[in-house]
UniProtKB/TrEMBL annotation:
Protein keywords: Signal
Region (Disordered): 140-178
Family to which this protein belongs: Belongs to the MTB12 family.
Keyword Glycoprotein: no
Biased composition (Pro residues): 162-178
Name of the protein in question: Low molecular weight antigen MTB12-like C-terminal domain-containing protein
Length: 178
């Protein structure tokens, strides 16, 4: 089960099922001016679209693999579980907003953005928006979530096996009566 799915665990995620697809995301940007000689930052919608497709229960995990840097077909199940967890917890539809877009200082070409995730669902009490800095990397066909961000939010990557439980000590037999 997914316990940190896009840290919407902050919104209370877990489980599995399929509900309607979320509506188109909204987006804003605080600064899109590129330094001289650099390309312009991507439109906020280019980044929010990645999250929308990851949360979309109608998109199979195999197609979501292209949305995460270095993802492999082995990651498809975890990507499917993300949308199911959102659906099972009645958090869909979600609204994604990208603000404060900037070039990543330590990875040329990558973009960091503050992503705000809001649920339009009506559980009581209404979950507060979840705000998290995320990194995106360019591809020939658009943008994808960086593997580091995905590992933090989607529990992708190698899982550490649980330690083998140590059996309790064998009780000592009672001494014979004297």
């Amino acid at each position: 089960m997914l316990s940190a799915a896009i840290s919407m665990a902050a919104l209370g995620l877990s489980g599995c099922s399929a509900d309607p697809v979320p509506p188109a995301p909204t987006a804003t940007v605080s600064s899109v001016a590129a330094p001289p000689g650099e390309a312009a930052l991507p439109a906020p919608e280019a980044l929010t679209d990645v999250l929308s497709r990851l949360a979309d229960t109608s998109v199979p995990g195999e197609q979501k693999v292209a949305l995460v840097q270095y993802a492999t077909p082995d990651d498809a199940a975890a990507l499917d579980n993300f949308g199911r967890a959102l659906s099972d917890n009645r958090l869909l539809p979600l609204t994604f907003t990208a603000t404060d877009l900037a070039w990543a200082p330590d990875a040329p070409g990558d973009v960091v953005a503050t992503m705000t995730v809001s649920s339009a669902a009506s559980p009581n009490p209404q979950p507060r928006p979840f705000v998290y800095p995320m990194r995106f990397t360019p591809t020939p066909n658009g943008w994808q979530m960086s593997r580091d961000t995905a590992n933090q939010l989607l529990e992708m990557g190698t899982k550490t096996p649980l330690p083998t439980p140590t059996p309790p000590p064998t009780p000592m037999p009672a001494p014979p009566p004297r």
